[in-house]
Amino acid sequence: MVEAQGTDRRSAPVELSFPASSRHLPIVGLASTSLGISLGLDVDQLHDLEIAVDELCGQLVEQAPPDARIRIALHRDRGHLVGEGVLLGRMQAFTIGPVSQPILGGLDVDWSSDPSPPSFRLVVPGRQHPRLGPGPIDGSSGDRRLQPFPGP
User: What is the CATH number of the domain that holds 101?
Assistant: First the structure.
């Protein structure tokens, strides 16, 4: 279980491993969004997280050989949500395509990729961040946080 308090600690990672196929991308998006909600990300951060995970995993899927698998690990580290993905299988090279680069560049998510091994890392900032300022993960006020659904 991941708890949203004590943001200075690193949480145990939530890991997913799946065949490198686009039909599994919605499951990865749901898992990353669910973890983001449990950490207190606001709606905009959740949206950026989902797009970033989909784009980065999609790039791995597009360039993967047929028998490859992708492993994703998501965890909290010093108030930030960190995601790391790696392609398990033989692959000549990995690059972020020209369509995905501007999409990822427009998000409030820090990301990087590595051609060897084919992998990516993304960080959704939670604490004081140069572009975002204080974030809701650290307990500061965040009027865009998801609220519990009101009862009947």
Answer: 3.30.565.10
